[in-house]
Design a protein that fits this description.
The chain contains 16 helices and 18 strands. With 614 residues, it is of the alpha+beta class. Among the domains are: 226 residues, Rhodopsin 7-helix transmembrane proteins (Rhopdopsin 7-helix transmembrane proteins), CATH 1.20.1070.10; 146 residues, Heat Shock Protein 90 (2-Layer Sandwich). Strands 15-16-14-13-11-18 form a six-stranded mixed sheet, with helices on one face. Strands 4-3-9-8-7 form a five-stranded antiparallel sheet. A three-stranded antiparallel sheet has the order 10-12-17. β13 and β14 form a beta hairpin. The protein starts with a helix and ends with a strand. InterPro entries: HATPase_C_sf (IPR036890), HATPase_dom (IPR003594), His_kinase_dom (IPR005467), HisK_dim/P_dom (IPR003661), HisK_dim/P_sf (IPR036097), HisKA_7TM (IPR031621), PAS (IPR000014), PAS-like_dom_sf (IPR035965). This is histidine kinase. Keywords: Kinase, Membrane, Phosphoprotein, Transferase, Transmembrane, Transmembrane helix, Two-component regulatory system. GO terms for molecular function: phosphorelay sensor kinase activity.
């Protein structure tokens, strides 16, 4: 027969092990699965202490009190295991929160009833102290006890069913973790069966605590070896279920752990290679390592990597497709921060598809334990960019050709008209001369518009106020006046030549529509700068149209001045809009302008250029 001393020693050892496992597992960044498991371990540890207190209590009243606390605490085990398995299998998020709160509330109520049972006898009708094999408490349950404790038994069976189903039909890569949970969970059933059959001595709670090392050992192995509560669940919670793009999760050894439905739809070979290097189903992900740009072979077998053609057949990378196209086109090298390529191309269903790869490390306890790969099909987007680049190039070529081919005959016509006007000037020749000048302006503005709208690759630090004043000197402004406010004395990131073109076109627009004595003001705004005047302004219903090609309220204008302004602004990445100035004139607002937060020495006062001060 087992002595009380030996039994207490075994319970104490099991309790110490539970405490050690809880401390080892716990960290503040642990996800919900890990927190629930640590809660289960904590229940085992505290229950062990209560069992020891019951067995060593000097008075029966203390023994009964310890027993009631044991019953209340261990009553939470079925609920905690059930919630853990729901979360692990992905079903917890599908259960309404009120249902979860109801389960927790039910257990709290039952626990309170068990602890306070001596005052009402609703759960236990009486207590007795069994003497064999050593003194411990036994209680006789009431009819109500059978009802209130039934949900816990149901939760035990439901949790086993969920684990079994997940083991059979869940992801193959997670089967080791699932099997570990199932193995760690089943001893509870065995202990219950053996205890009720009289094969396990002592109190039931003590038997559960003594059986906990097997549970903790198996699950701790799964945590240590397979990142049970960290890697794949973390990735699925964060991105896997919310993205329409293909998502793939691998461990630190690049083995395929998980993927979403979009990934399977795009890369059909993924389900056949779970737990294997991800380069098996997706060889394009491996960077080009060889000196001649060749890929390394399979990281496990050394064979050339194989790519799925998308029609049920496969071929080694670089092997010609029977339809005459390569199976893989041109992957890019990986970066220093990622062991995978950043882009790759792939032959699918008779066409080449292009993908961007976004790699996010998954960190566990401060170290990289794996990676989440988001594979985004950018074929249409890149083709659109190429089309735009081609159209821009064609537009520039067209504008250049137009300028070249029209300028010579235009100059001839202009010269002939001027000669004719010297001999016999009349209003018809004057009108023809004005028309030729207008055509020349249209040609110049068209060429400018085609060139200035191109994307700017490199920006420099530019003194905004200086460029504004320099632009004023290149424009025929007559008696107009320029005011540069002190707050415009800043540096911005821009292309100086194109920024000056912005100011020149804005000034021409102000003078043409505001009159010879208009005052133009350059100042700062919240995230950019403003060019305003005190002229008649732009009607509210026309402010969105002023930046359109060929829009002009002046019959002599080309209608391209503000279109050029908008093209240059967009090339910088800025936004531009027309508004009303404080004096009722036009106000062109440039926003999204990046400012260099460094003051410019000696450029602080209000500057007036032109007019009486010129």
């Amino acid at each position: 027969m087992v002595s009380e001393t030996v039994y207490v020693g075994v319970v104490a050892l099991s309790t110490a092990l539970a405490v050690a496992v809880a401390v080892w597992l716990w960290n503040e960044e642990m996800n919900l699965q890990g927190q629930l498991f640590v809660g289960i371990v904590g229940v085992y540890a505290v229950s062990g202490l209560l069992v020891i207190g019951e067995l060593l209590a000097p008075w029966r009243s203390w023994m009964f009190a310890m027993f009631n606390f044991e019953a209340a605490l261990t009553g939470f085990l079925p609920l905690l295991w059930f919630l853990l398995i729901l979360e692990y299998t992905g079903y917890l998020r599908r259960i309404p929160r009120p249902a979860v709160y109801a389960l927790v509330g039910w257990n709290v109520v039952v626990g309170v009833l068990e602890i306070t049972n001596p005052t009402h006898d609703l759960i236990w009708s009486g207590y007795a102290v069994a003497t064999s094999p050593f003194p411990h408490v036994q209680a006789e349950g009431t009819a109500l006890a059978a009802v209130v404790l039934l949900p816990g038994s149901i939760l035990y069976y439901a949790a086993v069913a969920l684990l079994g189903a997940h083991l059979l039909v869940g992801p193959r890569v997670a089967r080791k973790q699932t099997a570990a949970l199932l193995v760690g969970y089943l001893p509870t059933f065995a202990i219950f069966t053996l205890w009720f059959g009289g094969a396990v001595p002592g109190p039931l709670t003590g038997a559960l605590v003594i059986g906990s090392p097997l549970i903790l050992g198996v699950v701790a192995w799964a945590v240590f070896r397979h990142q049970l509560f960290d890697l794949a669940p973390l990735a699925r919670e964060s991105v896997l279920e919310v993205l329409d793009d293909a998502v793939v999760v691998v461990d630190r050894d690049r083995r395929l752990l998980d993927y979403n439905a979009a990934a399977v739809e795009t890369f059909g070979a993924l389900p056949d290679h779970e737990g294997e290097p991800v380069e098996r189903p997706l060889p394009e992900l491996r960077p080009v390592d060889g000196p001649d740009g060749d890929r390394d072979g399979d990281p496990v077998t050394g064979d050339a990597p194989v790519v799925d053609r998308g029609d049920g057949t496969a071929a080694a990378v670089g092997e010609p497709d029977p339809r005459g196209d390569p199976t893989e086109v041109a992957p890019s090298n990986g970066t220093d921060d990622s062991p995978f390529v950043s882009t790759f191309t792939r032959f699918e269903d008779g066409e080449v598809r292009e993908y961007d790869v976004t790699v996010s490390p998954l960190e566990v306890r401060g170290s990289v334990a794996g990676y989440t790969l988001v594979l985004r099909d950018v074929t249409e987007r890149r083709q659109h960019v190429r089309d735009l680049e081609q159209q821009t190039t064609q537009l520039e070529q067209f504008a250049g050709r137009l300028s070249h081919d029209l300028r010579n005959p235009l100059n001839v016509a202009f010269g002939r008209v001027e000669l004719a006007r010297e001999r016999h000037d009349d209003e018809h020749l004057a009108t023809a001369s004005d028309a030729l000048e207008r055509i020349e302006g249209i040609v110049d503005d068209t060429l400018t518009l085609a060139r200035e709208g191109q994307t700017i690759d490199e920006l420099e630090r530019v003194d905004l106020a200086t460029v504004a004043r320099d632009a004023w000197e290149t424009v025929d402004t007559g008696e107009a006046e320029l005011v540069v406010e002190p707050d415009a004395g800043v540096r911005i990131y821009a292309d100086a030549t194109r920024l000056q073109s912005v100011f020149e076109n804005c000034y021409r627009n102000c003078v043409e529509h505001g009159g010879a004595s208009v005052t133009v003001t350059v100042e700062r705004c919240d995230d950019g700068f403003v060019v305003a005047d005190d002229g008649p302004g732009v009607p509210a219903d026309e402010r969105e149209q002023v930046f359109e090609y060929a829009y002009s309220s002046d019959d002599d204008g080309t209608g391209l001045g503000l279109a050029i302004v908008e093209a240059i602004a967009r090339a910088h990445g800025w936004a531009v809009e027309m508004a009303e100035s404080d004096s009722g004139g036009a106000r062109v607002v440039f926003s999204g302008v990046e400012t260099v937060e460094t003051p410019i020495a000696g450029d602080g006062g209000r500057v007036v250029v032109g007019g009486a001060d010129n």
